[in-house]
Amino acid sequence: MDLVKIELSEKEMPTRWYNVLSDMRVPMSPPLHPGTLQPLGPADLAPLFPMALIMQEVSQDRYIDIPEELQQIYRMWRPSPLFRAHRLEKALDTPAKIYYKYEGGSPAGSHKLNTAVAQAFYNKQEGITKLTTETGAGQWGSALALGCQFFGIELKVYMVKVSYHQKPYRRILMETWGAQVTASPSQDTNAGRQVLAQNPENPGSLGTAISEAVEDAATHDDTHYSLGSVLNHVLLHQTVIGQEAKLQMEKAGDYPDIIVGCIGGGSNFAGLLMPFIPDKVKGKNVRIVCAEPEACPSLTKGLYRYDFGDTIGLTPLLKMYTLGHTFTPPRIHAGGLRYHGMAPIICHLYDQKLIEATAVHQNATFEAAVSFARSEGIVPAPEPAHALRVAMDEALKCRESGEKKTILVGLSGHGHFDLGAYDEYLSGNLPDYSYPRELVEEALTHVPQVPEK
Ligand SMILES: Cc1ncc(COP(=O)(O)O)c(C=O)c1O
Fold first, then answer.
1. Whose CA is nearest to atom 16 of ligand 1?
2. Residue 142 and residue 126: Cα distance in Å, rounded?
3. Domain spans of the chain?
């Protein structure tokens, strides 16, 4: 019998997060204080984050225990299933084996809940009563709304204005779980007012929404800030995905030749790929490929530089592949992939040539999403549809070469709130857009120069 779902029991769920920093041969460049340009210390982050998360951010320990109370919550949707895409393989007429790790079965519909509940838990432990955050497509905001609801914490979400209007149902979901949602740029913060003064029609960006959420938290004593991607501790929480996937592949008697995932800030893919890095470092022949949009090509066209995480320049400087923090993304439908930078861990792995990157257009992405939906049933979110495009292209190459490669792809969420985007694709109204390299060079002239050591 050919297995379709490779499942783990609750007892097999990981009880520790895996910290890839412990296996890095070359250390990462530290985040810098934007004023002094010196490495940040834990105290610099204390106005925004609870100390437990700050210690995870800088930890070099190989494993960090998942508290029992959190494991109990994780068990509501974890372990998540690994599927073998038999029907898709048949539709593509490929000898390749395609597996997908599906995170869309969480109540919030994506991987984001894995870190949302962890962040709410540690903030609650430190006595915090209110969090602020930003959200693009609304996936992260809705996950954190539920995380905060579980732990009795208030939440204010700054939602990128274009998504606020394109995706009213995500806003309603956040409100259903008790969050207050504001379209960003807003009049509620200095950062928002500054952006609106320059252009009242500004559609918003994740960078601006981060500026607003950070300012709000930094100016209120009872309030902390929470980020859904990019930072080390967020990626750490997502490693439950890859640890499970590794065990599931083992149960299937298989090991991936290629691992593919989409990257917005880097968290879902890092969570999937990082547990495979020790094997790769030891010489295992596995290709790890990041999929990003042509319209927001942080790795494939960005420059590896220190840059701000937000638009206004309130956050620490992070060494990352960046399109420049003033980048206002084109209105593509993968709202979660429109961030100007990338997780420093992903950037470091890319710089060390442990992972590769490729950029795809949104029409090709939706074409893959629709054929996936028609064969496997699940309607993917536009973000992981980028990964499906790349995985399906690899499977099609196998059709040409006759190779029986094993492909593992991260399916980070479902697209039930993205049907407007599907509608535009199906009616032929979706534009393709390549972000020009010249604009990156121009944007980065405004970034503080940090002397290379
Ligand atoms: C379903 C889904 N996948 C992927 C992403 C991209 O974020 P990250 O790269 O942090 O996983 C998002 C962001 O909102 C998302 O909602």
1. 139
2. 22
3. 5-10+67-109+235-446
Question: How many C-beta atoms surround the C-beta of residue 100 within 10 A?
Answer: 26
In angstroms and rounded to an integer, the radius of gyration of the C-alpha atoms of the chain is 20
Kindly report, residue by residue over 195-224, the tens digit of the pLDDT: 999 999 999 988 899 999 999 999 999 999
User: Which atom of ligand 1 is least distant from the CA of 268?
Assistant: 11
Give residue for tokens 């694709």. 425
Residue type, 273: L
d(Cα 103, Cα 66) in Å, to the nearest integer?
19
413 CA: nearest ligand 1 atom = 1
- Is the CB of residue 406 less than 8 Å from the CB of residue 256? yes
Instruction: Judge if pTM exceeds 0.85.
Output: yes
Confidence of residue 415 (pLDDT cuts 50, 70, 90): very high
Q: Give the tokens for residue 411.
A: 């399916």
Fold for the domain defined by 5-10+67-109+235-446: Rossmann fold (3.40.50)
Specify the length of the chain in residues.
453
Q: Give the Cα separation of 134 and 112 in Å (integer).
A: 13
